[in-house]
Backbone:
């Protein structure tokens, strides 16, 4: 077997499967988006671009778009920063394999919690009158802070939970990646009397550029779907302060309105916007990495 | 002196970060053993009379057992098939596909841009026609989008970091491409694949909306966990904590096994 | 496309079937013909207590009852999607006050009397609950939990401050202000603030109604009138005397704050009454008094119950088994069995309320308050299929007002009413 057939053979099944699933989901969503189907009645008519035009006049949609962008920035940047910092700190300070493995396991726990349960737990931790965070703040004379009821704090407060879950998880992945790096360049830098942070900033992290970019994008995609967390913690409130696009689509499509066609139109627009945004980021990232 | 302080800081800062990061977990474990009265107090209680009632409530609930079983079947099938299809594809993308590689890789990622709300209805309709609505197979099928695409996406950089000389040397010695992949590339990339597999596992393990909409009797754990969060009108805080503690154990075991497997793969690989 | 046709087809068959009277199939003829009977529900005590009796029913019909328990939001989403797409996974569906209008207008459920055998006396259901379960004179679900409001107050605090139990809204307002003492960690009041038709809107509505508010006038939304504004202003004013974070409180936060001893007055659904007397969960056992909400506040009626799904139970035997299940699970005998097991919170029948077993389980004062409230209880929300959407949007602007994101009450309500017009226009 030569190279080409082997490559084709290993690619084809995966791509064929993905293409099939993509056609079903995107095709289905586009078809729904052009109708006025609601959950209430099975009768639906073709309405053309009506749903899309209505979206362009929907204040809540643009608010959700804005919240989604902020949410993306917070959670992705927070996750990666936390992960890089913690991974390097642990890589440098915890040398015994047993401790390192134990820490890794502990750090995996948050992301393995059922999201809904994690959201409930944090909702309680954040409670101004019953939560332990406000109790501790109270001891040093701050508060009570209304983490989830204050419109300017709510989004950050929920983002912290997301960062807590994913950041610790990414720490483990990065730590594993750091361990797989060849020792020679690091040792060479050490011989040059480089400081620890210099080694990481100029040697190890650049070596991990490729994987880190992949992780950033994957996290960005995951951040697009955080409705379960936000739904339990704030329901999108106060007002619409934490209402992201996928939450709004859920509220409109399944939870409250049952306007499934409208939600589909929203999803299609989201698909278009993210594809454009991510293409730009991905091309830029690729160029930077090479 | 300055160096000493620096040294101490290097020890203390990670310790503090770790404590902060794991504090909520610790608090959850404590809460799992508390009666509601001890949870709902303005002054948090560190000392209390522990109870195992919360765990009893959970373990008595038969839907948890079913949910766990369903989740194990669905997630292992999804991750396994995802790995079988995704890892070779990623290798091919990293090594052979020069012109289209980037575009295919991006297409794979873009599959996950759409919110699941929009995917749910088309899939319900098609699944009803095919007769696979409310089956574990149906769930696995839709989750394959997630697992195959995520594994490809994260495995490509893993294979790109495999030194080309090793592969070329092996090829020079007459190894067919599949053998190069199987005996050389895969073992070298294995530790980096760990992240891809665990990541996929986590995504599928925690997926709620599609599980809720595409299955009825065959609910997976996230759906069951969501149902535990309200017992009647009451939010059973103690039970939620206990459920959380219990539900975290199976995936931890799985990841432990995966780590062990990868470690042994690394060891058996070429030096 | 195919599906739309398929569902139109089903609708036609259902219509055709309706024109002929149902032949009541009995258990002997159908025994074994319905291998599983699928039921969707929330984990209410009335539902979970069924578990140990299911064998009896399974035996009778040669079936296996499978109850899928979900949280409220998941349950609503799931049962609606299931009926809407024609999946029909559930023979028996769980309905509440907020979505009954939608289920009836979409023709997803059978009228109760058509499917539930006569021996399960439907007229014995509590009138306040049956009213909620009824659209145009036809009852659709068998309620097993529900009720109205009750005012809970801390007898010890009132005694300490020398305040009488308020009987009017003005007295209540004054008493709330008098008992508020944040420095001591004690607040006069608590309420729901989180957005949602069943959340802040639910508690806001009695105030709105007390001010004489109406939802619709000549089919157009008018809740942005004077009454709406006054009710909202009073609601916001009272929130000043509530625990921090109240702007996004759900019922659980509110009730736990009271149960944790931080709140002097609370008007909430009456089912929360017995919670206060639970030693394992409450720090205020024996300190709580119960009274009807002070005049002119009405009491917000609600009910949850089971109905037989037209989409799921489409054969004669399935319908018969599902109907019998609904009757059996909500029967007088079943309620007595629950009382015998010490569960006093879910009562759907008049005969149970009057039974000695019930009186032995709850404080006499609570029953008195219940009885005194029941005549004030009715469905206060808008009985319209578009209500979930309208209510949610109203809840959203209310939460914005509560949390201070916006402060112009009138314009906020105008916006919600404007949105409601759009929603109403879509209901054909």
Residues:
């Amino acid at each position: 077997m030569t190279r080409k057939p082997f490559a084709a053979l290993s690619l084809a099944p995966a791509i064929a499967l993905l293409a099939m699933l993509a056609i079903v989901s995107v095709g289905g969503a586009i078809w729904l988006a052009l109708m006025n189907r609601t959950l209430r009645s099975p009768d639906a008519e073709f309405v053309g671009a009506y749903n899309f035009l209505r979206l362009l006049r929907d204040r809540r949609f643009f608010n959700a778009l804005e919240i989604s962008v902020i949410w993306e920035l917070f959670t992705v940047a927070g996750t990666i920063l936390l992960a890089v910092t913690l991974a390097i700190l642990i890589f440098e300070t915890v040398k015994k394999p047993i401790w390192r493995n134990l820490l890794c396991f502990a750090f995996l726990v948050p992301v393995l919690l059922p999201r809904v349960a994690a959201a409930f737990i944090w909702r309680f931790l954040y409670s101004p009158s019953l939560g332990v965070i406000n109790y501790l703040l109270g001891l040093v004379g701050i508060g009570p802070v209304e983490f989830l009821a204050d419109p300017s704090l709510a989004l950050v407060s929920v983002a912290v939970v997301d960062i807590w879950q994913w950041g610790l998880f990414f720490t483990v992945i990065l730590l594993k990646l750091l361990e797989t790096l060849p020792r020679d360049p690091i040792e060479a830098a050490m011989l040059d009397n480089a400081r620890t942070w210099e080694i990481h900033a100029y040697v190890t992290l650049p070596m991990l550029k490729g994987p880190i970019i992949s992780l950033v994008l994957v996290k960005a995609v995951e951040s697009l779907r955080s409705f379960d967390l936000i739904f339990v913690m704030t329901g999108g409130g106060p007002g619409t302060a934490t209402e992201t696009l996928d939450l709004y689509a859920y509220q409109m499509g399944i939870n409250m309105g049952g306007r499934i066609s409208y939600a589909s139109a929203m999803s299609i627009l989201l698909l278009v916007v993210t594809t454009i945004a991510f293409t730009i980021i991905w091309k830029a990232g690729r160029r930077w990495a090479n | 002196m300055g160096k000493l302080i620096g040294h101490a800081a290097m020890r203390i800062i990670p310790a503090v970060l770790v404590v902060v990061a794991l504090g909520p977990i610790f608090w959850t474990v404590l809460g799992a053993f508390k009666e509601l009265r001890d949870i709902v107090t303005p002054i948090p209680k560190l000392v209390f009379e522990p109870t195992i009632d919360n765990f009893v409530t959970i373990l008595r609930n038969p839907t948890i057992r079913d949910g766990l079983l369903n989740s194990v079947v669905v997630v292992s099938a999804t991750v396994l098939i995802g790995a079988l299809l995704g890892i070779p594809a990623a290798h091919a993308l990293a090594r052979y596909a020069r012109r289209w590689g980037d575009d295919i890789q991006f297409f794979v990622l873009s599959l996950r841009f759409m919110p699941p709300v929009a995917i749910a209805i088309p899939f319900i309709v098609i699944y009803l026609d095919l007769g696979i609505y409310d089956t574990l197979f149906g769930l696995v099928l839709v989750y394959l989008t997630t697992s195959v695409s995520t594994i490809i996406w994260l495995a490509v950089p893993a294979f790109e970091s495999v030194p080309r000389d090793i592969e070329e040397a092996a090829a020079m010695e007459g190894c067919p491409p599949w053998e190069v992949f199987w005996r050389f590339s895969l073992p070298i990339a294995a530790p980096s694949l760990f992240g891809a597999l665990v990541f996929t596992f986590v995504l599928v393990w925690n997926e709620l909306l599609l599980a809720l909409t595409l299955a009825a009797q065959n609910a997976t754990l996230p759906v069951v966990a969501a149902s535990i969060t309200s017992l009647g009108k009451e939010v059973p805080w103690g039970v939620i904590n206990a459920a959380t503690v219990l539900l975290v154990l199976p995936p931890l075991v799985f990841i432990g096994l995966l780590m062990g497997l990868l470690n042994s793969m690394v060891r058996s690989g070429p030096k | 496309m195919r599906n739309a046709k398929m569902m139109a087809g089903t609708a036609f068959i259902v219509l055709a079937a309706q024109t002929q009277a149902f032949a009541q199939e009995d258990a002997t003829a159908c025994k074994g013909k319905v291998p599983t009977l699928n039921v969707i529900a929330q984990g209410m005590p009335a539902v979970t207590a069924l578990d140990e009796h299911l064998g009896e029913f399974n035996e009778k019909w040669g079936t296996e009852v499978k109850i899928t328990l979900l949280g409220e939001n998941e349950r609503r989403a799931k049962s609606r999607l299931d009926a809407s797409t024609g999946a029909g996974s559930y023979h028996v569906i769980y309905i509440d006050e907020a979505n009954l209008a939608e289920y009836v207008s979409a023709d997803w459920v059978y009228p109760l009397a058509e499917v539930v055998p006569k021996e399960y006396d439907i007229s014995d259901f509590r009138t306040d609950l049956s009213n909620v379960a009824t659209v145009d004179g036809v009852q659709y679900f068998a309620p097993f939990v529900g009720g109205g409001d009750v005012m809970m107050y801390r007898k010890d605090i009132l005694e300490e401050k020398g305040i009488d139990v308020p009987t009017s809204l003005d007295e209540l307002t004054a008493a709330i202000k008098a008992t508020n003492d944040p420095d001591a960690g004690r607040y006069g009041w608590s309420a729901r603030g989180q957005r949602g038709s069943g959340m802040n809107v639910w508690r806001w509505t009695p105030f709105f109604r007390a001010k004489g508010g109406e939802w619709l006038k000549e089919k157009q939304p008018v809740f942005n009138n004077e009454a709406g504004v006054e009710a909202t202003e009073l609601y916001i004013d009272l929130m000043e005397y509530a625990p921090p974070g109240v702007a996004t409180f759900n019922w659980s936060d509110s009730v736990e704050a009271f149960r944790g001893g931080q709140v002097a007055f609370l008007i909430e659904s009456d089912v929360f009454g017995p919670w206060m007397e639970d030693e394992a969960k409450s720090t205020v056992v024996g300190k709580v008094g119960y009274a009807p909400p002070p005049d002119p506040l009405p009491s917000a009626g609600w009910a949850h119950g089971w109905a037989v799904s037209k989409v799921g139970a489409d054969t004669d035997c399935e319908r018969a088994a599902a109907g019998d299940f609904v009757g059996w699970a909500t029967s007088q005998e079943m309620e007595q069995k629950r009382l015998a097991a010490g569960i006093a919170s879910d009562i759907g029948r008049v005969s149970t309320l009057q039974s000695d077993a019930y009186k032995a389980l709850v404080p006499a004062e609570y029953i008195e308050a219940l009885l005194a409230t029941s005549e004030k209880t009715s469905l206060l929300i808008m009985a319209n299929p578009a209500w979930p959407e309208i209510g949610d949007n109203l809840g959203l602007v209310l939460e914005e007002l509560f949390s201070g994101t916006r402060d112009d009450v009138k314009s906020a309500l105008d916006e919600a009413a404007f949105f409601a017009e759009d929603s109403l226009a879509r209901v054909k």
